[in-house]
Specification:
This protein has two domains: 188 residues, Rossmann fold (3-Layer(aba) Sandwich), CATH 3.40.50; 69 residues, Gyrase A, domain 2, CATH 3.30.1360. The chain is built from nine helices and 15 strands. A five-stranded parallel β-sheet has the order 5-1-13-14-15, sandwiched between helices. It has a four-stranded antiparallel β-sheet with strand order 9-10-12-11. Strand 11 and strand 12 form a beta hairpin. Helix 1 runs parallel beside helix 9.
Length: 279
């Protein structure tokens, strides 16, 4: 009988505060002499911006070394330009998901058919971005808002002074947005307003279909990663972030105790164990 084609394992991971960390998010609680060696994986305006430990870099390389047995898919809310600043160890991933699922990159290039499908669905099911931006402009006080931004003409976010944020404003905005088919997520100093159908999980399902993946693994730290974790066969969340702070969990999701950059190492260890049980 002819050999059956190998069904690859799809490994879909959030990036910021899951696999890579800014200096402020490293959360190193060990003595200086025990601090891990760090690898800079992102430079912006000639300044180092994001890091992973050298151990995590080696583990990611080992994951890439599984060849056709594993498909690693960076899965991020970052825009395409923000994602392309990152230089992860190993060969460039064939697939990457940007803008929370709004763009599916294939060999670094946007798949226009996927993007057209996404934008058509948003137009049918959600209030327009302009309406949400108007609401943010009208209700967000310049005293505690530092920046208003849109991403890829798909969603909006604010950069806030978190300590000055009035109690109840986020909940009120979430109710207003929910009535219009949008979700609200507060992550550190950023507040995201995202159309509900704009999800990482939808794009991951598309990659799984194209690759014939037999198993999907996922990791993420924020509420925008919850749908991704629920869609995977197995998932992990670190001991920090929105999901940890809210106590969020699910039957197929493991809550890890590690926080900060060491959580990135642990997540990659779990990916490798699950993708290559013989390891």
């Amino acid at each position: 009988m002819p050999a059956q084609p190998v069904q690859p394992v799809l490994v879909a991971s959030d990036l910021d505060r899951t696999l890579i960390y800014s200096a402020a998010a490293l959360n190193l609680t060990v003595p200086d002499q025990e601090a891990p060696r760090l690898l800079c994986v992102e430079v912006y305006d000639s300044k180092p911006l994001s890091y992973m430990t050298e151990t995590a870099a080696r583990l990611l390389g080992d994951l890439g070394g599984l060849g056709e047995g594993a498909v690693f898919v960076p899965t991020t809310t970052r825009t395409r330009a923000q994602y392309q600043r990152i230089n992860l160890p190993g060969p460039p991933p064939k697939y990457a998901i940007c803008a929370n699922g709004g763009h599916l990159l294939v060999d670094g290039v946007t798949d226009p058919d996927w993007h057209a499908r996404v934008t058509a669905r948003l137009a049918d099911e959600c209030a327009p971005l302009a309406e949400v931006r108007e609401r943010l402009t009208a209700t967000a006080d310049p005293q505690w808002v530092r920046k208003h931004r849109t991403a890829e003409d798909l969603f909006a976010y604010l950069v806030l002074e978190r300590d000055l944020l009035p109690e109840g404003w986020v909940k009120e905005l979430a109710v207003w947005a929910g009535d219009r088919g949008w979700t609200v997520s507060l992550q550190g100093r950023k507040l995201y307003a995202v159309p509900a159908p704009l999800t990482k999980s939808a794009a991951v399902h598309e990659v799984a279909r194209r690759t014939g993946a037999g198993l999907t693994l996922a990791a993420g730290d924020s509420l925008l990663d919850a749908d991704l974790l629920l869609a995977a066969d197995r998932g992990w969340r670190p001991g920090h972030g929105e999901l940890a702070d809210s106590g969020w969990t699910a039957p197929t999701v493991s809550a890890l105790p590690e926080r900060g950059v060491f959580a990135g190492e642990r997540i990659l260890q779990e990916f490798l164990r699950s993708a290559n049980p013989a390891r």
